[in-house]
Amino acid sequence: MNHIFKQGDQGKPIFLLLHGTGGNERDLLPLAEMLNPTYSVLSVKGDVSENGMARYFKRLAEGEYDLEDLEYRGQQLYQFIKESAKEYEFKLEDVIPVGFSNGSNMAINLILREETPFQKALLFAPLYPVDLQNNHKDLSAFKVFLSMGEQDPIVTKAQSEHVIEIFKERNATVSETWVNSHEITQEAVLAAREIL
Questions:
Q1: Exposed site from 24, 64, 129, 185, fewest CB < 10 Å?
Q2: What is the pLDDT along the chain (196 residues), one digit of tens a residue?
Q3: What residues pair up with 138 in beta bridges, in sequence order?
Q4: Hey, which residues are catalytic here?
Q5: DSSP sequence for 86-118
Q6: Residue-by-residue DSSP string for 121-148
Q7: What domain range includes position 123?
Q8: CATH number of the domain where residue 146 is located
């Protein structure tokens, strides 16, 4: 997969950067720098093209996911992360997914997999309209930061609250910040730094 790896200080966590629709592997590098410049970075470009815009999985319409593709791409991305951990010599439990929009949605798919040992995530403008009745992953040792938009034109407030519920139902420690729209603000970045 197209990606950028940047080595940080030995023994420190590694940010897994996942961009929004139409972005690329360079988009969130400045965000990682603002969050913690000493952490390593693995920034991955989504390899699904929607009208020429890169994404991590297919969708049928706005807010309507191709669930089979989401499952397949999530597995593929996790496999890539495991291979990268060997190649670049980092531990999977040190990986902190940092996502925006479509990247946040893919991060949620990774976090909810039984086999992923991630302990923290920073998610900006997430949306996850997926039936999770059969998912019982215990996230009691997991911390998540969620930045959501009060007036987000893409994600309704109810959908944002649903994302909060997904994590709370699984006993995760949830920190939330509300911004105005579908965006990453400086205020949200400062709040996200607190849980690091």
A1: 64
A2: 999 999 999 999 999 999 999 999 999 999 999 999 999 999 999 999 999 999 999 999 888 899 999 999 999 999 999 999 999 999 999 999 999 999 999 999 999 999 999 999 999 999 999 999 999 999 999 999 999 999 999 999 999 999 999 999 999 999 999 999 999 999 999 999 999 9
A3: none
A4: 101, 152, 182
A5: HHHT--GGGEEEEEETHHHHHHHHHHTSTT---
A6: EEEES-------TT-----TT-EEEEEE
A7: 3-194
A8: 3.40.50.1820
In this structure, the strands spanning 64-65 and 59-61 are antiparallel
Going by the DSSP 8-state scheme, the letter that residue 67 receives in this structure is: H
The rounded distance, in Å, linking the Cα atoms of 11 and 8 is 9
The number of distinct structural domains making up the chain is: 1
CA 132 to chain CA centroid, nearest Å = 17
CA distances from 65 to 33, 113, 196 (A): 31, 17, 31
